[in-house]
């Protein structure tokens, strides 16, 4: 006999009250209720339990599997190093209550008040700093031209004494301007109006015509010099050809001619003895030594005279330069500073500061096709560093130097000493 409730399985529709039936199939609902009752009896409904009670995470793994893996694959050295852990715990970075004061500040270390004051003086400067701290380097008040007293050691008394450093006279003088009239040149001159990115048409056209005429004149000068050089080379080639022709004619005329036939034969000298030859050699050596001594004496006198003249000329030039520089300085102070624009030609004096001439200013004129109507399309030109350096050379602050892009480096020869070849045969015992 079945315990299930009566049911009618074949029902097409249950819509409407007339289609309702009493005996409906509830087997699935009854099975679910029975399963829930069993779960409650065994410990609770599984769907209501958290994941921690239902699942367990295996972090250790199977020991047998680990043994098999270790036997097949040896662990890496880096893994072995990382696996080593120190037994000493790490230093904690948090503040502990035992180290905090009443107001929440850290307590002072347990040192004496005198030591604390000494360390504080070292940290914040003071007289104690000079005694405790070792100063390294060069002090700001170091004078490179000061005379330094060096103690002479008796073992090196035979050596020549070093000459003291002498401060140059020009170090105390003001820089002399290279302008021909002696006026001071401003460090930053006023820029020409025609060099603007959006210049006035008249000023820009005047500047363009001026620079064009200057470029044409330079090109004519270059072509003239090239023509003179070509003519000189042609004349040299013609002169060398004529000299070779005359020499060949002279050789053809005198070829085969000898004037030794008309000369009488000289008497053959007798053979000298060894004593006579030695006497003649000693006399010639004495004459040669006397001539050499006379030449050296005359040369020494000339050297002394040249040194004396050079010293006097140098003193005269030094006094003249000092007077001239003082006069130029007074004149510059009286007349003021030159008011020269960047585009104007500055006439320089012939005697400049340094052997190398000052580099020419770069051409910074914008051509008609390079003019732009906006700052976005503007192409920046010029170099402030080069302009500043040229201004310093014009004012006589620095000496012009030639740019050497690839300087010669000192060559080193590396050789290996074969010390194993330096051996001696041991003496027999």
Q: Tell how many strands the DSSP assignment holds.
A: 0
Shape annotation: elongated
Nearest-integer average pLDDT: 77
Largest pleated sheet: none
Report the order of strands and helices.
HHHHHHHHH
Question: What proportion strand?
Answer: under 5%
Q: How many DSSP helices?
A: 9
Instruction: Report the radius of gyration as a whole number of Å.
Output: 54 Å
Structural overview:
- Helix content is 42%, strand content 0%.
- It has 429 residues and is mainly alpha-helical.
- It has a domain at 1-52.
- The longest helix has 62 residues, at 274-335.
- The protein is elongated.
Write the layout of secondary structure elements.
Layout: H1 27-42, H2 51-54, H3 63-72, H4 77-83, H5 113-124, H6 127-132, H7 201-254, H8 274-335, H9 384-394
Summarize the structure.
The protein contains nine helices and no strands. With 429 residues, the protein is an all-alpha fold.
Could you list some keywords that capture this structure?
429 residues; mainly alpha; elongated; nucleus
